[in-house]
Amino acid sequence: MPPTSNEWLDPAAAAPDATARFYDAVAPGYDAQVDGRTDVDNLRLREAFCQRVAAAAGPGASILDFGCGTGIDAAWYAARGHRVHAYDLSPGMMAVLRERCSGEIAAGRITTAAGPLEAMERALGAGDPVAAIAANFAVLNHVQDPGPLLQRLAVHLQPGSALVANVLNPFYGRDMRHGWWWRSALRSLGQGAIRMEGRVTTYRHFIGSLRRAAAPAFAIESVCTADGRSLFGSLGANHLFVQFRRRS
Ligand SMILES: C[S@@+](CC[C@H](N)C(=O)[O-])C[C@H]1O[C@@H](n2cnc3c(N)ncnc32)[C@H](O)[C@@H]1O
């Protein structure tokens, strides 16, 4: 999980290779750290997110799990009959997925790719575009400018279909009580996101910035919390579900 407090502050880190190194290092303990936490409701968030993606894809339809991590969601989708393309920047996270999902991979229900984005593009190749793209638990928050990435992802998604992202709420009330949130916000003025420096850097994108970054390939269709509250009632939520619709 990216930091939600200043516990990991370390201005030395940035860039995708630093992100990959960070996740390679945390991969063995990731599941316990994220889904095993008792102080936050990550399991409920994950279930609500996966349900949303499965509904967007339609029964049995193919899903690209972008930034799939250790494969918790990929296993969930595959168990419900979806064909899953799992991709992650971090080979370490992918190694955990490959162990978790060895049966599904052997059966061809999950395909995998790790490393630079080109690895995903090669793996998807000229195959049929997927019915939905998922990006759970702050994957897009590691990308400073999601615009070029979203345009490249759109190529692999059926026109009219959805990309569903779980992103960190830039205006999470509990974070806003801390000085580090205000210092980060001030340093990030005019950048379209609040940049949080740490062992891994995150960018808490404003919804308006995401909307601009997504065009022309996508429009934002909805933004809500895991329990369905609208953006205007989201101060108490650390995570937002953003649903992008690929333009036809
Ligand atoms: C907080 S983890 C979430 C993992 C998984 N989606 C989950 O729900 O548990 C963020 C993941 O995004 C991946 N990631 C970060 N930047 C990425 C990028 N540009 N392309 C693909 N994956 C990326 C990381 O390697 C990491 O596995």
UniProtKB/TrEMBL annotation:
Matching Pfam families: Methyltransf_23
Swiss-Prot/TrEMBL GO biological process terms: methylation
Gene3D superfamilies: Vaccinia Virus protein VP39
UniProt key word Methyltransferase: yes
GO molecular function terms noted in the UniProt entry: methyltransferase activity
Keyword Transferase carried by entry: yes
UniProt KW keywords: Methyltransferase, Transferase
Recorded superkingdom: Bacteria
PANTHER family: TRANS-ACONITATE 2-METHYLTRANSFERASE-RELATED
Protein name in UniProt: Methyltransferase domain-containing protein
